Structure prediction request, 418 residues.
Amino acid sequence: MEYKDYYNIMGVKRDADQDEVKRAYRKLARKYHPDVSKEPDAEARFKEVGEAYEVLKDPKKRAAYDQLGAHLKSGQEFRPPPDWNQGFEFQDGGFTGGGAAQFSDFFESLFGGGGLGGRYTRKEFHARGEDVYARVSIDLEDAYHGAARSLTLKATEVGPDGRPQVKERTLNVRIPKGVRQGQHIRLAKQGGAGFGQGEPGDLYLEVEFQPHPFYRVEGRDVYLNLPVAPWEAALGATVKAPTPTGAVDLKIPPHSAAGRKLRLSGRGIPARETGDLYVVLQIELPKADNDRAIAAYRDFANACKFNPRAHLGV
Amino acid sequence: MVKTDLSNLLSGELLDEDVALTLGELSRVCRVPAERILELVDEGVIEPLGRNPVQWVFQGVSVRRVRCAQRLQRDLGVNSAGAALALDLLEELERLRVRLNLLD
Prediction:
């Protein structure tokens, strides 16, 4: 088992007072809260900080932890000395909060009740299992057609010896057609196992779209930036445009300006109210990289008498 | 992608606007007391259809907002108004990130 330096995790000195510990926790909790943070290791950091705070906020647990010694470093191999917690009141067990199943082995061995000589019994204890959250990443196309995804979940369960153990299980889940970014799929009773005769919790899957190289999704509408040539925009044209359900022929009306939005009704994400696909025109300029192109640009300038900065007053 | 065995495919419930929940159902699914739901309605975190709590109907998306508000309050010590503000800002941030991704 690895020792965890809770002071280092919280970024406070060993002699920090309880207010400093609380302030440090609040700051880190905001920074790494999985609902708020986009940092890739946010969830792990948040749990680590929560575990550190669970110990340091409680003067009795903190005192017991402190006497393990200041010389230890995070990650160092560690065994709690026998009777390390003698004389501290929390010894009777049953004191860790509801989220304790997520804490580290280090925490569990010190404060997790099961390691304290079996003084408390879970014989009469029944509780519903925890609800579990997971993200499932899909492609935009999956939202148009529906899909199946296989996911592996790691769950902490209480083993026969009363200690938590990590179990992996694989679920095959149907991704319904019409699903949108950020929506939740609820799978009843697929969450954490219950205690005693308690029933399992639910599993919530949050749907996340893989970033697409050219489509952008807003709710059930899909946006595509479509490059067009200046003459296609000015004179009108029929051009090929990709859509998530296959390429289409798109009519560009004459006198189209850059940024013009063309709506392809009903080509967004299918649902009871199907979304639309918006094609946003982007005018791409051909390079003036040969004599004929240069001459054509000169003719263009002479023919148009165009000042693109007129609205800036210059 | 991992090969998916279709024989034991699980189908869940998609919590979208087609799912309508009563006050009691929402409070059971989110595992919070009904008073808490009333509080979040007052803050505008979730918006039911219907005149009074007995007739209220919530869209499935309310589940995500209620649960997120719960986590923010539990973990960060914010009150309902703070959670409501955070939720609005987070959703705005998410929209802007989507746009930004496309510009990069």
User: Anything to note?
Assistant: Helices of chain B lie at 23-30, 34-42, 61-76, 80-103. The first strand of chain B starts at residue 9 and ends at 11. Chain B touches chain A through 38 residues (CB under 8 Å). The beta strands of chain B are 9-11, 13-14, 20-21, 58-59.
